[in-house]
């Protein structure tokens, strides 16, 4: 392994518009260029940023879906190569036989595209998407090993463990967190769970939320970039509007799983008992 | 199942003194009486409140250890019966052949005592204690099903899942959280992890920390009582000194694991993939 290095990651919290594919593609491209211009090496976009989120039904989702050679992923591939960045973003993926998946792509500057299909579906997604059955990938990018999962997946610590145990230093998570009530002054529980997931694995997590009311739903706007100790480096508070979060990660922190002379967050697990 | 009811739980954050068994016993008894007088039905005390924490070695721990019929557990049994409360507290348990465990007892007003032995040992504890090999118990108390684990156990979400899946509505966790650096304005990661553990299981958690410098170590003072949504009902901020936290729990929240029309925090797990 090379000497641990730093990595500059960006979350681009955006407001895609449901069904406006051209608008969303342009919105994403502008955001990627902006983040790269600020020095980002990894740019994370929201879940389903290509299509919008609140489909009426599977037919609408299918009509808005893309395959791997569709215009959005083709554009992300071109931008990743041009800007020499890794792009992680969510899109509505067209599968065979009229099925669709809530997917995310990790696009590398060298041209490789790694897909992840959301395995834990939220609410009405169960009526629309085919769930993924594969664990979150860990991709050995030029910037370090990066994993991908999507939104509600983060509520299953068992799921987050898998890429952490497989060596991910950074988990990129496109999310769309619907907003809800919470006690005054409290950081949203969605962000709190990201913190805990990071801390118990000593793994960086960049969660990129969306904003912009859509079909009666608004969003937490809780994009956050959390360090290996579980504290936010950027995105300490929710913000209802668009925002660009940037943080420089000292990836060496994620290689060091020892948290005391006699403790290691992964080797201390007792899987025979779980 | 009976109609869901409310339960009043207390955390008594105290400053035991290492090796001062009589002092600690009296400190605990006073705290239990005080909490009961405030209406608590379940009283949680810190980890190793009977003995103190920072033993020099196993010999010192052994000399300060007790068995189930020792003076501390005998007193807790008498107080549980007299005050008609459940008591959960940590003690240094004498095992056979000169071994000791970092244990917690759940003492019911009817006289039953349920033991738990810490399964994930922190730092120097590895040189002193024999780890437990049994999952956290879930005890059907008169106030509802209550589970017990200890401190570093909470950093393993797989471990917290076990009593949650077994039906616990409230997890009581005696802890001794050594204090450390954290970013200004941030809630300690120890408390954040409790929040996340509660939210992903829709289970109440009462974590009772200690205070009072001991052999050069001070403590987070992070006692907190968290609801099934993952937000603190009491103990929003750390407090370095002794404190009594009280919260009334609507246990019905913990019976309802559904978080949307199509989601259930436990049934949505995909254990075949983990």
Automatic annotation (TrEMBL), chains A, B:
- Keyword Transferase listed? The answer is no
By its UniProt entry, which PROSITE patterns does this protein fall under? CN_HYDROLASE (PS50263), UPF0012 (PS01227)
Q: Which InterPro entries match?
A: Aliph_Amidase/BUP (IPR050345), C-N_Hydrolase (IPR003010), C-N_Hydrolase_sf (IPR036526), UPF0012_CS (IPR001110)
One annotated GO molecular function is: hydrolase activity
Annotated CN hydrolase domain residues: 7-251
Mind listing the UniProt keywords for this protein, alphabetically?
Answer: Hydrolase
Is the keyword Magnesium assigned to this protein?
Answer: no
Task: Report the sequence similarity comment from the record.
Answer: Belongs to the carbon-nitrogen hydrolase superfamily. NIT1/NIT2 family.
This chain belongs to which protein, by name? Answer: Carbon-nitrogen hydrolase
